[in-house]
Amino acid sequence: GISYFPNPVDEQLTLRVGLKESAELRLSLRNLLGQEVERQTRQLGVGENRLELGVASLPAGIYLLHLQLDG
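Request: output the structure for the sequence above.
Response:
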């Protein structure tokens, strides 16, 4: 499963991703205009993975987080 906190976020978003097998995670963060403001690709292992995404430099607003797991 996937969980994230805090919401709303001020400085850092934490993602927890639990996997039964290793996988590649593609992360995309977009503003409401559809502009991609952050993109990351990470290789995740079996079990619980914790990722931290710094957002302190982004202007205040609403953002959409898109995650894709391949594996």
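The longest strand covers residues 23-31.
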